[in-house]
Amino acid sequence: MGSTAHHRAEGVGRRDLIKRSAALGLIATPGMGLLSACASSGGDGQDKAKQGKKTAKNPLGVNDTAGLEFVLFDGGFGKEYAEDAVKIYEHDFPKAEVKFAATQKIQSTLQPRFNQGTPPDLIDNSGAEQMDMGVLVGKNQLADLTALLDAPSYDDPGKKVRDTLRPGIVEMGQFDGDPVWILYYAYTVYGVWYSQKALDSLDAAYPETWDDMLALCAKAKKKGIAGWTYAGKYPYYIPFSLYPMIAKVGGREVLDAIDNLEPNAWKHPAVKACFEAYYELYKKGYILQGTPGLDHIQSQTAWAKGKALFLPNGSWVENESANVIPPDFGLAVSAPSGLDASDKLPFGTIWASGGEPFIVPAKAKNAEGGMEQLRIMLSEASSKNFTAKVKSLTAFNGGTSGITLTPGLKSGVAALEKAGSNVVNPRLQDWYVQLQKEKIGVSGLGEMMAGRLTPAEAIRKIQSFADEAAKDSSIKHYKHQ
């Protein structure tokens, strides 16, 4: 979510259920009450560190005596990869004092500091309490990272940082125009995760059409195995497979229209067909009993124990559930099943995009240091370290040579190769956090998959949410260029 987003309430990729106040840009999270958004300037702020001398080894002009404060989201990827990168920064700038902290409470910890004008220098803005990116960008609270992207890469002074990144990473950090506000560090493959061993035991292959999916779920049910489970308490996981299915059926322009908050975008026939397909899983009893009450860890654990075949999720799941996935599980991910041969895009169409959004606040005391820490993290060595330790790709375009890929990571790489150019990247979860998570996810899809709304009712409800967001003048609106 990613992720995410990722995406990780008490884990990876769970973003917050943010509720914006139209008048003041206020946000609230469950159990926290109303808080002023991390978008007001507040306080007198802090004195900026004097810029250092730019050299070949210090292209961003970091002040080598200035302190650096780095706050990481402590989720499914852990914190060791970041701590290792901090050690490199400390080696390069031995006079600098680095303050590193990891927390799952990003918003409640940092929101007051944004209001006071004293934010850290680098933040991994992820998790259940992710600060709303649209609010931060719209209120000019983030530093433009173009200087980092145009700086020489850590490994090769003849190559800019931007030229070392995977396709789409720079664009994901842009909201409106050329400035880049966010650097997504992880590269997440979203899709339908499953056990190859479980499919083998049913003498089945991954189903490419929905009829085949339903037939396989029926076969599994006879063996006492549910077809699907998902994070019922966080049903905005469902789009990880549902959205690329919509694109497969109707074309990527359907998702673009949804992202753009276009009138009646949710009433497209492809949306209706895919909602009805997923609703069949509920109607036919193919969803693990009790799923609506499960959180992400509980649903992943049930799935890892063989209680359900399929789980919509992101590639962080391999690391997050490593302690419950059996060694012979045969972890794999697939692009979503389609409807039939009339689909606009081929089987293999998948959602993959940047996750773990890193930001440098506009009022950071040492913004150059925050960007330099990111430059270090985007080196080949740091990228390989991340991939080896947390079983996920990074934004660095490479970093897998010489590494023995784990089953899930190997499957994710294969899924990307199969997809080719048919990779989609819905932007709702970046542009409109509350709409995507709380309204579409919890109030729409969550209610439908629990059987409390029909597909038609869910579509009407979600379209009304999108229309409200489109008309809300307190929200900065974004469109695909």
Short key terms for the protein model shown above:
single chain; disordered N terminus; 481 residues; alpha/beta; two-stranded antiparallel ribbon; 10-stranded mixed beta sheet
Low-pLDDT windows of residues: 1-42
What portion of the residues fall into strands of 2 or more residues? 5-15%
Give me the strand/helix succession.
EEEHEHEHHHEHHEHHHHEHEEHHEHEHHH
Total helix count? 18
Helix share of residues?
A: 25-40%
| Estimated radius of gyration | 22 Å
Number of strands: 12
Structural class: alpha/beta
**First-last Cα distance:** 22 Å
Subunit arrangement of the protein: single chain
**Overall body shape:** globular
Give the overall pLDDT as a whole number: 90
The biggest beta sheet reads:
10 strands, mixed
Region (Disordered): 40-59
InterPro entries: Bact_solute-bd_prot1, Chitin_NgcE, SBP, TAT_signal
Subcellular location: Cell envelope
Pfam family, one: SBP_bac_8
Give a verbal description of the structure.
This protein is α/β, with parallel strands linked by helices and 481 residues long. 37% of the residues lie in helices and 13% in strands. It is built from 18 helices and 12 strands. Strands 3, 4, 5, 6, 7, 8, 9, 10, 11 and 12 form a 10-stranded mixed sheet that branches. It has a two-stranded antiparallel ribbon with strand order 1-2. It is found in: Cell envelope.
